[in-house]
Amino acid sequence: MKVLKFGGTSVGSAARMKEVAKLVCNGERKIVVLSAMSGTTNSLVEISDYYYKGNTAGALEKINALEQQYLATVGELYATGQYRSECESIVRSHFEYIRSFAKAVFTLFEEKAILAQGELLSTAMFHLYLQESGKSSALLPALDYMRIDKNGEPDTAYIAEHLERLMAAHEDAELLVTQGYICRNFYGEIDNLQRGGSDYSASLIGAALHAEEIQIWTDIDGMHNNDPRIVEGTRPVRLLHFEEAAELAYFGAKILHPTCILPAKLNNIPVRLLNTMEPSAPGTLISNRMGTGKIEAVAAKDNITAIKIKSGRMLLAYGFLRKVFEIFESYRTPIDIVTTSEVGVSVTIDNTRHLHEIVNDLKKFGTVTVDTDMVIVCVVGDMPYENVGFQAKVLGALRDIPVRMVSYGGSNYNISLLVKAEDKARALQALSKELF
Predict the structure, then answer these.
(1) How, if at all, do strands 367-381 and 295-310 pair?
(2) What is the dihedral of CA 239, 242, 247, 251, to 10 degrees?
(3) For residue 260, which of 178, 199, 375, 387 is within the disulfide window of CB 3.0 to 4.6 Å?
(4) What is the distance between the alpha carbons of residues 202 and 212, in angstroms, rounded to a whole number?
């Protein structure tokens, strides 16, 4: 069995939903995972923000506008009055549910319940369209099987057991439609897998069922070897190792969410990235197979802050790095890359929420310098140290660009370089010219 996930753009209109239906209806039994229609989650976040601020009138105005958009889509999606009327009733019930929070105290729990409505709406509409089209379809509610534990991690045993039970109840259905992103937490409350969680949902479902393949359908034909918004003539990378894909996803390749990789990798399930706008394009296949002796792609991660701690106390001392890293841990701030010398250490972060407190604490150990508006440029491929020459090619390409930090050797798959944001475009273009 295959698991097919379609993002918000792929189901962003009635026309797109109809195209997705054509793609999935080929006689093979499969699970179809849907995101919310494009723009919906952002609108629901905005509605929640109005509720938080006690501005009920503002929230209701946004709710009414979003409901009208959905009703317009319903009018375009169905050919018969019966199904159109049934779907309008479903849409109105979901929006009445969202309006019901105007009368209560609004907390994070209510916000997560509201955010879940996007996926519940898109799957209900799509499933109903399949039924109108005479297709064999069943709806698998993600809230009945997708669960996270006390630590916010997927409860894989629970997911597998309850998903298989649901599927057994619909063993005659060709298409099993379910929601991405949403889940329940350990206490049974509605929760989610964070932004990009629909990719994660598909990977968890694939792992639970030992699927033959997980397909991630978006609006671009695979993972490109550079950022097509900045560099001309980029091309899709046809084959990637899981480790390479994880590096690219984390360091800026937006087509795939980084968390999607691990469940598929551990269960040796290939992930294929495909384009709903060009379904015949081969896309990118991600697996445990490794191409050898080749640089595959470049990605960039924006909004990076570099912090340098310089201290004579570090010289020939032990325990210094532990004290530095404990400060970041205490503020729950992940570090991206690290470089060290005998008298200093530099780290990068992308979450500056506690930057002021972190810097204040670091000043106890040495002189602290902060550089903002930086970018991590990540070059990915088969690059163990035995493959000589790749490092020189990468650094040679940036000979005219100031490089603040270089990180190499942490894995066999990437070299990370820190440059100023103003030099990002030049860096990506220079690397593309030199490497590809």
Answers:
(1) antiparallel
(2) 70
(3) 199
(4) 13
- Across 1-21, average pLDDT: 95
174 in Cβ contact with 27 (< 8 Å): yes
Helix (H), strand (E) at residue 301: strand 295-310
d(CA 52, CA 224) in angstroms, rounded, equals 40
Backbone φ and ψ for 353, nearest 5 degrees, come out as -55, -40
CA 243/CA 28 separation, integer angstroms? 30
In 1-52, alpha helices (H): 14-24, 40-52
Length of the chain as a residue count: 436
In this predicted structure, what is the pLDDT of residue 349? 96
User: Average per-residue pLDDT in the chain?
Assistant: 91
Q: How many CB atoms lie within 10 A of CB 366?
A: 19
pLDDT at position 422 over 70: yes
- Residue labelled with tokens 């159109």: 84
Count the alpha carbons within 13 Å of 426 in the hemisphere toward its beta carbon.
11
Q: Cα(274)–Cα(325) distance, rounded to whole angstroms?
A: 40
pLDDT digits (tens, 9 = 90+) for 332-362: 999 999 998 878 899 999 999 999 999 999 9
